[in-house]
Amino acid sequence: MNLLLRRLAIAAHRPIIVIGVGIGGLVSALLLASAGESVLVVEKERGPGGKVRQLNVGGASIDAGPTVFTMLPVIEEIFAAAGARLGDYLNLHKSERIARHAWSQSDQLDLYADFEQSCDAIGDFAGAKAVTGFRRFSREARRLHKALDRPFLRGSKTDPLTLGWRMGWRGFPDWLTLRAYRSLWSALGTYFPDPRLRQLFGRYTTYCGSSPFETPATLMLIADVEAQGVWAIDGGMSALANALETLARQKGVVFHYGEPVARILAANKKVTGILLQSGEQLAADTILFNGDPAALGAGLLGADVAPATRAMPEKARSLSAMVWLAHAKTGGFELGHHNVFFGPDYETEFRAIKAGRLPPQPTAYLCALDRTVPGHRPTGRERLQVIVNAPANGDHHDYTSEERETCTATMLERLSSCGLELEKPLPHILVTPNDFATLFPATGGALYGRASHGWAASFLRPGSRTAIHGLYCAGGGTHPGAGVPMAALSGKLASEAVLSDLGSTRRFLPKAIAGGMSTRSAMTAHSG
Q1: Rounded to the nearest 10 degrees, what angle do helices 23-34 and 484-505 cross at?
Q2: Which of 39, 91, 342, 460 is the most exposed place for a label (fewest CB within 10 A)?
Q3: Rounded to whole angstroms, how far apart are CA atoms 354 and 332?
Q4: Residue 187's closest CA among 205, 209, 202, 204?
Q5: Closest Cα partner for 337 from 436, 226, 213?
């Protein structure tokens, strides 16, 4: 079809509606528009990003969502697909130090982007045998990552047999040894007799909201993802969301903020449009939902589309969190950009969370947002985000002021035991599973969709397509999983599914469809 005919075909179709502009929704909107589609975004909040957001504490804007940025090539490829260069929109710095880890004032270990430097640090920390185990672990994590990157992480939702087919005969040995039937915690014991190192590398499963005691050993690949590089973004992760939005606008995407969607409308298992809370209806043949798929299955977007995905049981939810956003003076422990302060007993921590309780002596992750440049020490107060894992029960358990105060005290004790002192009283706000449950309906505050517990969990995440024709999903709760690069990949996969399905139905020049709903023009809708 020549360019004129394609433009006429697009004009005759209703705009594709994207509900929500987290990273997955932004990527989908951008790539669909770059392919020539008309795209209208509807978002209940006042700006882009979804979980990638900032909150104000004492006049300082502090990242309240993801802080670890990996898999840079994924984002570079998305910008390139839109005809742009990432470096023209963002300033990034590769971190020389991946993270600082502490168990006490005397037990501290840094991991580095340079592998041999990490080996030296581990040798100094735990001896030569630990280095041998680390080298073996790193080789296995790299093998699993390479084996699954193309056929699983970058491919559409699949099942175990189809995954084996995608991996091909050369990948058959890897398919037979994906280590899906042994827990990560158990496997780590074969590499790291030192319990501190076992705890360190077990923590990577929290990146997908899961327990190392219940996830398959396959997930050791996450350690290799981080070993491939961690970057800091000037302006924080919100700068990435803003850059994607800017580029999407340049491609013609229309953004309509402050408009919650009450229902997704469908007839005969095919979408027909959306109903806004304002009462206005917008017609659509194609809708992409960038929210947690659990909201669809729970019927929160209407009975018409409840069959789109399965409802997720509470026991399948990933972790939630207690998150402190602080603007405070620090002393003692020399912070890096990413810092982990380990509790004394990991098994007790996760047992408490599984039972619906806050851990009594929790591990705390701290992102020092102003320490992105090595050796830079902020003067005065600095911006901090501190995270402690929590159960995803925010839809039925009310976190009392006493629980909040106790958890804050135990978090501060953990930091202090490792030598870090924070300003007292601490200028901060605390975000709890109750807040996350409100922000992300039907999740109970789960921040990563479905937990990766059990060998089959990774295959149970919803894919781009749903059981409702014309309704697609993207985001951290959708295949391939949680985290900024994974959410971006879900957006890419969703856009490919939409374009493939539209291509199969546009065999002839379509005719305009008259009447039915009050439909705004994508060219005149409020752009936020």
Answers
A1: 40
A2: 91
A3: 34
A4: 202
A5: 226
Neighbours of 150 (CB within 10 A): 12
β partners of residue 271: 266
Question: Among 32, 31, 26, which residue's Cα sits nearest to residue 45?
Answer: 26
Which of these, 70, 158, 110, 29, lies nearest to 482 by C-alpha position? 70
d(CA 476, CA 480): 8
- For the chain, first and last CA: distance in Å? 34
User: What is the pLDDT, as a whole number, of residue 3?
Assistant: 39
- Whose tokens are 């040894």? That residue is 177
**Considering only CA atoms, which of 510, 442, 497 is closest in space to residue 470?**
497
Instruction: Give 111-147 as a DSSP string.
Output: EESSHHHHHHHHHHHH-HHHHHHHHHHHHHHHHHHHH
Q: In sequence order, what are the residues at sequence separation of 6 or more whose Cβ sits closer than 8 angstroms to the Cβ of residue 165?
A: none
Q: For residue 12, is pLDDT > 70?
A: no
CA distances from 433 to 162, 163, 191, 404, 496 (A): 37, 35, 35, 11, 34
> Across residues 307-314, what is the average pLDDT?
90
The letter for the amino acid at 475 is: G
Half-sphere exposure for 322 (CA within 13 Å, toward CB):
25
- Classify 322 as helix, strand or coil: strand
Strand 338-341, strand 60-63: pairing:
unpaired
Tokens at residue 73, please? 């090539």
| Count of residues making up the chain | 528
Which token pair is 11?
Answer: 């004009």
Helices (H), ranges, 294-448: 294-297, 346-354, 401-417, 433-439
Which residue from 238, 231, 301 is spatially nearest to 266, judged by alpha carbons?
A: 301
Q: Phi and psi for 92 in degrees, rounded to 5?
A: -120, 150
Are 295 and 301 in contact by the 8 Å Cβ rule? The answer is: yes
Q: What is the pLDDT of residues 187-239, one digit of tens each?
A: 999 999 999 999 999 999 999 999 999 999 999 999 999 999 999 999 999 99
Q: What is the CA radius of gyration of the chain?
A: 23
What is the phi/psi pair of residue 52, to 5°?
-80, 100
CA distance 442 to 298: 7
- Going 191 to 110 to 413 to 425, the CA torsion angle's sign is negative
Cα separation, 68 vs 324, in Å, equals 17
C-beta separation of 274 from 302 below 8 A: no
Amino acid at 171: G
**Cα 313 vs. chain centroid, distance in angstroms?**
20
The DSSP letter of residue 514 is: P
pTM of the model as a whole: 0.91
- No. of helices (H) and no. of strands (E), the chain: 17, 21
| Residue 240, number of CB atoms within 10 A of its CB | 25
Tokens of 144: 């699993």
